[in-house]
């Protein structure tokens, strides 16, 4: 069903209004004979309201909601009736409130003995049973050294739940370990939920081989260019230990509009450039927004960082976005593996998931980007192209660009790996000055930043990126 809806939307974008008119759709649906064979209106008098090019996405939304909610509720009701036909009506009378809590919520008291009880091992390594037993002993000896918080973080990353079943009748997912050959290229995976990403058309991950190349600035320029082009844009900062994006936008942590709220559907990102009369088309989320003090240092071990990245990727209520730009830490680390695995578990990842690489002209940065390219190739992560940042300095007085570093390194690297070279961006004093102050803290900040030389040059890069999806 979902593939058919996606294909309908794709074909409509490609072929125009006449394509939808020729389908003769109405705001109603007829379920299968197995489901009752009835026809339901998706809106009031839906059978008499035609689906057009302008209301197509409203139809898709209501169609999907009906399938996911109404029909599932019917199935659950039949299940409930079946359960009550089998179980005595007083069967739950003997359970205490604590029994109910443990049954539904599980236990957060995670010791190694409990973990050993519920963890299953799947052997795909071809090793002897003696070697497998040695691995299991090593595995449990490592977990013995974890404190309670680290174990809970591990379980959350591992299963998607911060608790284990209190008994075999519990509802929580149980952990499993797959043992693979030592030379296998397969990356570790974690159980994830993609609800926060379901209404996002395209995701672009911004990567760099090393720090200090202006990756976060490029991610900001990309997000702003897409927003100025009329798109609904989200900007996600998953650089946990150095989140700089909120500072660039001048986010006031003490402002009510900069507060992240927890809802049943996920965390709410903050809205940038919003007004009292109009809902913002630009949303922002960062680890810095979850801290009491934006200057607090984050000193976490790997499992806890990976659990938080998973939460940022799947637990944010973005709503409908044309583009989600993800700013990542520099290098290739556990954080990047987590980002790749979580995003690539989406059934349509190959259609909407891409990456952009950022380098500077220096040979040190170029060499680090080679490793980033290898990382993307090993993880089958599609690269849109390479941007050479800090390629010269724009004088704030005469606007002349002076080359500071050796030139052409990014272009040669792109040619070597057959990657599109998207363009060069200079060091722009005016741009950096606005970002240092924070765009929202500068009067007419968005207008001024769009007038900088760097942003004017980025328009050409944006055209290259947009052409990639044509």
What does this structure look like?
This protein has 470 residues and is an alpha/beta fold. The protein folds into three domains: 2-86, Hect, E3 ligase catalytic domain; 100-179, Hect, E3 ligase catalytic domain (Hect, E3 ligase catalytic fold, 2-Layer Sandwich); 195-468, Rossmann fold (3-Layer(aba) Sandwich). It has helices spanning 2-15, 17-23, 56-86, 97-105, 112-118, 129-144, 148-159, 215-228, 245-248, 302-314, 334-344, 349-352, 363-378, 409-416, 429-437, 445-450, 453-468, and strands at 28-30, 39-41, 120-123, 176-179, 200-208, 233-237, 262-263, 266-267, 270-272, 282-286, 321-327, 353-359, 383-388, 393-394, 401-402, 421-424, 427-428. It is globular and about 85 Å long. It starts with a helix and ends with a helix. Residues 190-194 have low confidence and may be disordered.
Summarize this, please?
Helices cover 42% and strands 15% of the residues. It has 17 helices and 17 strands.
Looking at this protein, list some descriptive labels.
single chain; 470 residues; alpha/beta; Hect, E3 ligase catalytic domain; Hect, E3 ligase catalytic fold; Rossmann fold; 3 domains; eight-stranded mixed sheet; three-stranded mixed sheet; 17 helices; 42% helix; 15% strand; globular
